[in-house]
């Protein structure tokens, strides 16, 4: 056979070698083609990602939902699309997906009300694999741009490090409001705001430099709400919408350890009542309707300030551990006229006899239509109860239902956004031990959509953080107080309150 | 001076000294114990590092934690520690040479290094102090070498002061400023004076401004931040050695200045001739410092307490007992660790009274006072018993005291696997994976997260799972907890032993005898202290127990001997006790007759200050 020799740079390449080149080139082309994502193998399964951001309704102003792909692979590709916006394409070797913020923000803001899709591909076993598409819905209602919470490094009773932080929900910036290392490791808790308003804030400081810090439209003060007529300083607070009054619970509580893994701590409510604190006069008062022999706790104002909702349980019988620890709380309310400073009569809204469960942590929606609360077997400190779930109560019909956003772990403390469309709540669903803040859309029909955990710049951060997120509270803006200002006032002596009979 | 003498004085002797220092670190300081006691956290993770950036002094703490990771290893730790000491020495020599070049400086520089070696004899000492001192001297050397003009001095001082303030804290910035004054005095009078005034003013004003406007630190840290705020360092009481360590370098620089002026008669910063006498004096001073420093810093009992915990944790009952029984004063933590070590080795009943059980039943109740310091020991204790909910409880409480402690996290991995909390176990494994040390544990247990059936196949985990007691209120009474364990699984030998020992320690011999009928389920040979208890029971109740129970001849003989001593010294307990102690100090009879009773308060303390 004659060979057609080719001269290449003065050298002749034999036929066999040319054939080898040709075959190799063809193979490369063929395999190259099959290594293209366009030719990916379709996997009929949802990809495992962490956090579990699947089929959500998300705010149009939320930070990127960064996640980790938990599928095996040496290369990863994520395609994010929404409406007519330019697709966000991420191609990388790391499974930690950090979505570009600018492109994400543009996509969300330009497609409010539309669907957002994620296609995830992994390169594994020498081929691309395309998983089932993930669909999100971009809501038209934005979420309040800030979230305040306490980070506390404790699971049971002992504590040391903690701080109140504020996080920008449109990005990832988290700043301390106050960290307890600034105040010689005092206990800081119960940060509360008047209807999502960052210019009205309250924080308790306990053990060291005790007192209650009140930040009210530019005025910062430290008060001691303990009086000879009340069993304790104010504990659980709720701001009246007039910004002048704050309802507190007062009483004596103590935690008890158990051997139960689903309820490791019970909190004993020995005795509790409700008081009203006037921030302008520095006066504490109450009503016989809310300071009875029963245990009144967890105050929450209606958005119009006309009603104070609270929980109520029978008096703890002396020596009876069962009544002390395992009482069931009912939901009640009492009318209040702020102008005349007069109270009405307490009325039952939802009895624990009806629900069979104990009610706690009421929170009324901004439109006054719904109340979200937690319910568990007993007691009121529900974050330690694995079976604690969030319920909504229709305040018009008094019907209640278990919200769709619950999990098999504890759900507790909820907070409404200022537009009443978003709920932020505490949940231990991630690992059953530590509390994380979750966000869920609450539509006009009273349905809570699938919740998602607060997005982080590095999604693996939750794996390493040994702190609990307590009391997540949505805010319409940034808290303008600096940690230095708070520190300075904490070290001052508080103004003592007086009791008005 | 001839070369041979020079070689001996300035090479051989310092080398021998440093070799001695190494062995001192290895055998006396024991960095492995230091690590074990402090549990310094270090994760290779940006969000972990971020915690240390929020306040002045945080970075020095982070660096100290990084160096201390090497202390986990018995041999590498002392080498790293020695290297740090050598750097400290080198920096001191270089600084002194800037003022006055002399071979004597090599000897005098041993002094601060010597103090640095003694400081960790107190395991509560924050290592960040040594790291901060290194940084101060390094930046000072830069200032000394490069600060040839007043302007350059100012530039290097300002940069160094701000850096030191942020990295190490206000106290070290103050120290840096004081040391910088030495190098500001090298110019003409008015120039030097201006520099001194400026540096002094900056040292006062800058921390004030930082406190008022930048960092929300407590008032006590405005000027004198030397010790970090971590909770496990709060028990550290600064000693004379600590204060001398802070001041020794300025003092050495002053000595250098004086020596230069006095010996040569010339102005500063000229080379001086070596003086043999001063060399011997310098060595004498170093040896004196070494002896006094060791004396002042030595904490024999405290070291043994940590050693006991270390050996117990590493399952060495012999060394645990050795450390425990050599203590000069009683330690509750040691008592509990001794009991735990013997229990883990299966020798609890054989060796129980080998330690002076003076707190009686309290030593079976590590969390009786609900102390954070007992957290890790309580965790191990309850895990050994099989009381998994309490092991879990104390592991998490320990993490408050020792954030990211490897010891606590490893326990939590096992506990969460046992209880089926696989998500939580995975979280702990992921954290451990970011630690620098002990990856073997991660390799062993990570597969159990992926395939949870491996948990049941693991003998230890499966056994502990079978021991979990029923779910109810946590009893404040430790004997009740032992009972719950036995009710949950009668095969729990550890629970049986502890309950029996509780009854013995509390002289509840009726209850002991009731439970004794099950002894054959747990032992295949006689237990001396149980037999002694039966004989004591018979003695107290006037029952002929020898006919009802099989008692070994050795125990009978011992009992008779004991009775004889009591009878011989009737009315004189002191003498009887002394006479009986030699041969029978480790018997139950001795305990019951001479140590019991004592008042015990088995109540759990409700922590009303929890951040609810």
Short description:
By secondary structure, chain A is mainly β. Residues 1-10 of chain A have low confidence and may be disordered.
Q: Terminal Cα separation of chain B, in Å?
A: 74 Å
Enumerate the spans of chain B where pLDDT stays under 50 for 5 or more consecutive residues: 265-272, 599-612
SS element count, helices of chain B: 31
Largest sheet of chain A: 7 strands, mixed
Tell me what you see in this structure.
The complex is a heterodimer of chains A (501) and B (612). Chain A is mostly beta strands and 501 residues long. The longest helix of chain A is centred in the first third of the chain and has 20 residues, at 15-34. Residues 1-10 of chain A have low confidence and may be disordered. Chain B is an all-alpha fold. Chain B has helices at 3-29, 31-38, 46-50, 58-68, 76-99, 104-108, 110-118, 128-146, 150-168, 170-184, 189-214, 240-264, 276-297, 300-313, 317-325, 332-344, 348-351, 375-385, 388-401, 406-419, 422-434, 439-450, 453-457, 459-467, 478-488, 493-505, 509-516, 528-541, 553-568, 573-584, 588-595. At the A-B interface, strand 15, strand 16, strand 21, helix 5 and helix 6 of A face helix 3, helix 11, helix 19 and helix 21 of B.
Blueprint of the fold:
The complex is a heterodimer of chains A (501) and B (612).
Chain A: E1 6-8, E2 11-13, H1 15-34, E3 41-42, E4 49-50, E5 57-58, E6 67-69, E7 75-82, E8 88-92, E9 96-97, H2 101-109, E10 115-124, E11 127-130, E12 134-138, E13 146-152, E14 162-168, E15 174-179, E16 187-194, E17 197-206, E18 211-216, E19 219-224, E20 237-239, E21 245-257, E22 265-278, E23 283-285, E24 295-301, E25 307-313, H3 321-325, E26 330-337, E27 342-350, H4 352-355, E28 358-364, E29 370-376, E30 389-394, E31 400-402, E32 411-416, E33 422-427, E34 436-441, E35 452-453, H5 461-464, E36 468-475, H6 483-490, E37 495-496, E38 498-499
Parallel strand pairs in A: 3-11, 5-12, 19-37, 23-38
Antiparallel strand pairs in A: 1-2, 4-6, 6-9, 7-8, 7-10, 10-11, 10-12, 13-14, 13-36, 14-15, 16-17, 17-18, 18-19, 20-21, 21-22, 22-23, 24-25, 25-26, 26-27, 28-29, 29-30, 30-31, 32-33, 33-34, 34-35
Chain B: H1 3-29, H2 31-38, H3 46-50, H4 58-68, H5 76-99, H6 104-108, H7 110-118, H8 128-146, H9 150-168, H10 170-184, H11 189-214, H12 240-264, H13 276-297, H14 300-313, H15 317-325, H16 332-344, H17 348-351, H18 375-385, H19 388-401, H20 406-419, H21 422-434, H22 439-450, H23 453-457, H24 459-467, H25 478-488, H26 493-505, H27 509-516, H28 528-541, H29 553-568, H30 573-584, H31 588-595
Helix pairs in contact in B: 1-5, 1-7, 2-14, 4-8, 5-7, 5-8, 5-12, 7-12, 7-13, 8-9, 8-10, 9-10, 9-11, 10-11, 10-12, 14-15, 14-16, 15-16, 16-18, 18-19, 18-20, 19-20, 20-21, 20-22, 20-24, 21-22, 25-26, 26-27, 27-28, 29-30
